[in-house]
Amino acid sequence: MVQSNDDDMMGLALAEAKTALEQGVFPVGAVLSAGSRILGRSHKTMVSNHLNHAEMNLFHQVFRGDYIFSRNDDITLYTTLEPCIMCFGTMLHLPITRLVFAMPDAYGGCAHVKLENSPPRHLSRAVEIVGGVRRQEASALFAAFLDTTTEEFWLTGGASHFQAAVRANR
Ligand SMILES: [Zn+2]
After folding, report:
1. How far is the CA of 27 from the centre of ligand 1 (A)?
2. Catalytic site includes residue 55
3. Check: CATH 3.40.50.11890 for 4-168?
4. Ligand 1 (ion): which residues have CB within 5 A?
């Protein structure tokens, strides 16, 4: 269910994504909140080690050392693109109880992966998921990136399902 501050929080995530775009980086931004309190915000960074996703950068920023958060803290992850399997799996290990994303990822998005066959640890990790919040704005940033990137992966049609979805949103 969409909540009253989802639009504003996603606005902060979109601003992070814009920062990435300005640096020539695939524009994903992410924010963590506990109720109305912002815990942190981040975006994808230039390092090409596949660990530099906006969500992972944010998790390292917020959940460092002996953090005191629990699953009762009403922590929401906002991200401008549906999380991949790494970020979604990491989210399940962290005390995050709600996920809100903007653009669905037809190529690598894992928000709707079925956990029914997973081992007990993950069966109990129910997370409320809301997709499509400010989707057009997120998609416009991806379109701007695809128009300007010089990365071989994208120029040769990489993640074709995702590129097609961005084109369909224009
Ligand atoms: Zn990811």
Report:
1. 12
2. yes
3. no
4. 53, 84, 86-87
